[in-house]
């Protein structure tokens, strides 16, 4: 590994260090950094680890003192694995990870790698969000000795990145990605955005909630939402769902439903539909914005209004499903406090399952289940764990 000093601002910098110096830093500081997590203590290993291949290490410094590190190593012929990043607690929450990330990714690109992978505890949003913002995609979950891990992958090859969208069902296959996937797909070249018919906002009560930028949010009956959805569904989605080719054999259960329309200039710009999932949980079924109204921060502004309304209905949890590569939705959801709880394959594709808890204890419980925090206090009591007083 080579490279010079990376200034990170506010007196912080990253410097290349040797693998031995990195291991020494781990031995001295890792208990201070990771001591609050919950993992399984194996006996000493019986085998020596395989050689790591090419390695990358940076020490994070502040005022000349080592306050953290980043370590990565080669994994296979085209992949580098971001194995370990640690920052002392008193220096966390200052955006250091977000500032370091583009520099190390540039180093991996320069070294010739195609893929960058990493694993993180599934509820560690402070790390997952910067990774998704940098272009990583959710790739899976695994239960290991440290808890529940989420696997992330960044493709430095734009064609493979597009192929990941196709795999998740978020986009139709096209171009070079389709060819690499062995699909002979004709190119249509159609511009769907230019042919979307305007739909006037139906008659609604009141002025709605101001979302800024001329957008308003209006609560409407489910039937009004359903009519708008039927007219604009094809314009709102480029994803690929399974065609059952026949009507469903049963009607959907009758449950409470909650629907909103987003308006701009007197026309429908999008919608949100939620319903009851179970006795404690609401399900955010469907949120969409027409193409001309995307990338304006609307989802981020919409979320607190919808969550507040669902909380006022008495729900303790809110559930949602999203394509695993749809970072434009996953990022605001995680920033709003949702936690990644699973991946599932359904008729829409490979979907990430997110849960938001209004209950603080349940939120802490999710962190404990993932191994991000050690069970203690009320969480331990709710789990029936009778801990010693010094642990509780």
UniProtKB/TrEMBL annotation:
Mind telling me what this protein is named?
Answer: GCN5-related N-acetyltransferase duplicated domains
Q: Per its record, what are the GO molecular function terms?
A: acyltransferase activity, transferring groups other than amino-acyl groups
Which Gene3D superfamilies does the record match to this protein?
3.40.630.30
Q: Which organism is it from?
A: Deinococcus aerius
Q: Which CDD domains match?
A: NAT_SF
Q: Could you list this entry's UniProt keywords, alphabetically sorted.
A: Acyltransferase, Transferase
Residues forming the N-acetyltransferase domain are: 12-157, 215-356
